Amino acid sequence: MRKILIHNAVIVNEGRHFKGAVLIEDDYIATIYEDEFSLIELESSTSLRIDAKGALLLPGIIDTHVHFREPGMTHKADIAHESRAALAGGVTSVIDMPNVNPPTSTLERWQERMTLGARESRVNYTYYIGATNDIQALKHFYDKCSSTSEGIPSHPPIKLFMGSSTGNMLVDKREALLHIFRYSEENNIPIVAHCEDTPRINERMAEAQKLWGEDPAIEHHSWIRDEEACFRSSSLAVELAKETGAHLHIAHITTERELTLLGGNITGEVCVPHLLFCDKDYSTLGTRIKCNPSIKSGKDREALRQALADSRLLTIGTDHAPHLLSEKQGGCARAVSGMPMIQFSLVSMLGLVDEGVLSLERMVDAMCHQPAMLFNIQQRGFIRSGYKADLVLVRPEEWTLGKEDILSKCGWSPLEGHKFHWRVQLTLLNGQLAYDHGNINDTLRGEAII
Asked: CB-based contacts of 224: which residues, under 8 Å, 6+ apart?
């Protein structure tokens, strides 16, 4: 039996932090020790003993909103590169989005991605099934998926694009939407929805182009994809969720107004870029922070931070969406939307903890506990005996992000030049040391998360 002891750590878990140790046996957390204890009996049988020296020991981060771009867009990102970046950031499990090429909207395509994940992913993985206007395709997926071989998740979550999307992923027919929400409620499958009103966005883009030319400057992005575009779409999703009783999780909420929609079976995600940036940052960061939904006002950002702190916003994701810098050239019409974020999400959120925006315990709740519970990810997201040993050790350390630190395939970050005050030291994946002070164990692969 392989045994690892991590001692002299500050363990942050389930609303508490305390000095203690964790004993790992093979893939699992065996014992959690609190306060004073004797290690003598463990020394002779422990394969590896790690002195945390007072560093924080957290559950591995679960990022339920990533775009690893494979298949179809591997010139800018792929599973191998982005999962390595995840490990370096303390992320141990991801749920990858379906808007790849071809889209993940059938059982066959979903199974192909699961096979890719098993071969390439350095972190634990699963994939959303993308809803379309064809409800029968969704029903067929779950009917067949439930009867697949042991070890494959029978109910991966539904991703619903109620705003502009690639491929045929946009669902814009009310009848189709209602069928999807009813099916979700009947089968207890959460819907994660991208909510932006496409007609509103198209109207605003046409107006912007009349005023500012064919490719309006990036400063106009949040005028085009504005609060009203978000609220119209989110309101429709909430109306359908209330009518059917389905669990709706609104992805990447960006406005103060949308926070009024949350409660009961309506929960919300906030993404790291919308917690870090506001529209004033377009003047210095330009299209590097162009994303959909757009970065909004400083007032919206402060409202999101407060709602995260008081748990109105349930989870933190990254919307990690790499592009080449050459694809980010231009303005609102030409530059693509999305940015890499997964490698620096944890250290960025620890920065907000230092600023007093939210507590350390709430951060862990939003990045670990709540994602595991929301998506029924078994034996992960908590430091508990009998759970998989997905853990991250992070220590206070001042450092400045340089291009050489970036592991995402696209090779850039909107955070380049930023001074961080925390650094990920170790990431353990299923009881094995996967990331160690800058070194990645490339022989390890993640597991399908159930």
From this structure: 201, 204, 205, 208, 216, 294, 332
* Mean pLDDT of each 10-residue bin along the chain, 450 residues long: 93 97 96 73 73 97 98 98 98 97 94 96 97 91 68 75 74 92 94 96 98 98 98 97 98 98 98 98 98 98 98 98 98 98 98 98 98 96 98 98 98 98 98 98 94
Considering only CA atoms, which of 258, 315, 321 is closest in space to residue 291?
321
Calpha distance 282→148 (Å, rounded): 47
Beta bridge partners of 124: 93
CATH of span 61-374: 3.20.20.140
Nearest to 254 by CA among 319, 209, 186: 319
What H or E segment, with its residue span, contains residue 317? Answer: strand 315-317
Q: Which residues pair with 22 in a beta bridge?
A: 6, 32
How many Å apart are CA 411 and CA 57, to the nearest integer? Answer: 29
State the pairing for strand pair 419-429/48-51: unpaired
Distance in angstroms (rounded) separating the CA atoms of residues 177 and 274:
27
Which parts of 163-314 are beta strand (E)?
Answer: 191-194, 248-250, 266-271
pLDDT for residue 36: 55
Q: How far apart are CA 295 and CA 280, in angstroms?
A: 9
User: Which residues, in sequence order, are CB contacts of 203 under 8 Å at separation 6+?
Assistant: none
pLDDT at 159: 97
Which one-letter amino acid corresponds to residue 213?
A: G
Residues 6+ apart with CB under 8 A from 40: none
| Nearest partner of 2 among 52, 62, 50, 46, judged by Cα | 46
Helix and strand numbers (H, E) in the chain are 14, 18
**For residue 403, how many other CB atoms are within 10 A of its CB?**
10
- Alpha-carbon distances of 1 from 28, 41, 436, rounded to whole Å: 11, 16, 22
95 CB-near residues (< 8 Å, 6+ apart) = 63, 64, 65, 66, 125, 126, 127, 128, 156, 157, 375, 449
pLDDT of residue 150: 47
Identify whether the C-beta of residue 295 lies closer than 8 Å to the C-beta of residue 254. Answer: yes
Q: What predicted TM-score, i.e. pTM, was given to this entire model?
A: 0.97
Type of residue numbered 135:
I
Per-domain residue ranges of the chain: 61-374
C-alpha span between 113 and 185 (Å, rounded): 26
